[in-house]
Amino acid sequence: MMPTHWILGPGAIGRLLAHSLSPISAITLLGRRALPARQMLTTPEGKQRVVPLNSLTTAQLASTPPEPPAFLHVTTKAMMAESALAGITGCMPLSTPLVLWQNGFLAQPRITQAWPGPVLCATTTEGAYLTGDDGVVHAGRGHTFIGDLYNQHGELAEELAQTLTLAGLTATAVGDIRQRLWQKLAVNAAINPLVALAGVRNGELRGEAHAGRVVAVVKEVAAIMMAEGILPPNNGQGEEAWFTLVWQVVESTANNKASMLQDVEAKRPTERGAILGPLIESAERHGLGFEVLQGLDDDLAEVEASF
Ligand code: KPL
Fold first, then answer.
1. Which pTM does this prediction carry?
2. Span 198-214, mean pLDDT?
3. From the alpha carbon of 256, which atom of ligand 1 is closest?
4. Is the distance from CB of 283 to CB of 289 less than 8 angstroms?
């Protein structure tokens, strides 16, 4: 029998997962709204594939829950993860393994603490975006790292990494997922709020108008990372290693509209709570400076209030 994967949150990563896993597993895509049964995937090579994907609204799931899944992937935005999960907990055993795909470091520790079953976290560089209710573009291949915050579920992480790799999403099980989540959060904090507030693509951060602000953010972030015991990236040393990584990502994603800018443009709440929130909370706890981060959070809150 094929293993069953439920995917809660039919955004870009959720639908990419559903398309990729569907040839080798029984998938159910879960969301608040019904989706067209026929869904199109555009591959990184530009090929288009239309396939029927099994999707259910969370209300339908509650009325006739199918067989429990081997994994429940939570692919909502960070601030929706807990409420979305709470909405379907009656539909499966509490021992079901979860896989959290959120940015930042807000949903992961909270759900890991609250959920009785195993909780894996995933961080991915797969690039994907939606083209409507029935289409997702797999814009660029990346790599996914899987692990749990307390290193208790190595075998399960390995099993899932193998499944994802077989599905065409190259994945590795790791014992340092907490480090990797914080490292990604550091990069997101240095890029996302600034481009979202200025309304510019990532590459513009290199210009005179913005570069000084990037430096100010990275200085605060690097000190917080050190206090949290997060190693500087790529075996580098101190602040310099963080600057190198951030400028590398700015360069390699120069033409991107960052996810937070897309949220602001669509007048959706941003992920500031999951990205800036844990940094500010950590800085407060360790008695470190966070004026620049707080300024960004306040400015984003003001933008969100105007939606
Ligand atoms: O991950 C990203 C995002 O848009 O959220 C970055 C790294 C900023 C690339 O756009």
1. 0.95
2. 97
3. 10
4. yes
